[in-house]
Amino acid sequence: MSGVWYMTRLEKPASTKSPEWLTGIFRTLRLAWRLMRDPMVPTWLKLLALGTVAYILMPVDLLPDWILGLGQLDDLTLFLLSLKLLIDLSPRQVVESHLAQMTSVEGLYRVVDETPTQASEAAGFLDARSHQPADQKAASDERCP
After folding, report:
1. Does the chain have fewer CB atoms within 10 Å around its N or its C terminus?
2. pTM listed for this prediction
């Protein structure tokens, strides 16, 4: 079963513009921002996320930032944990509606009539003297004495 998954992962085109993990991070951050602004999400979840940001900005840490690597690692861990809690504990229908809105394209659409045109009109063959298509020029020449 895992071999099938492995094969489908290899068959993805290599011409993607950004790595998949980077796209996932931006999508998660956008979703969290939208959830923070949604009135259907409980206030205590929003306060939890804001408290985490306040902890990161405070000079007092569990592990001081001057300990290289570990100080930043605890900040990053708490930030990612608060994002996960915000998304997981928000009402499911609110999260799904935001995800649907994020993946849809808003705008006005119009249907274009796709009737085939004649080859001469499509190619743009115009008579330089009268700026008419060549077949219309021939028909007008026959009418004139």
Report:
1. C
2. 0.56
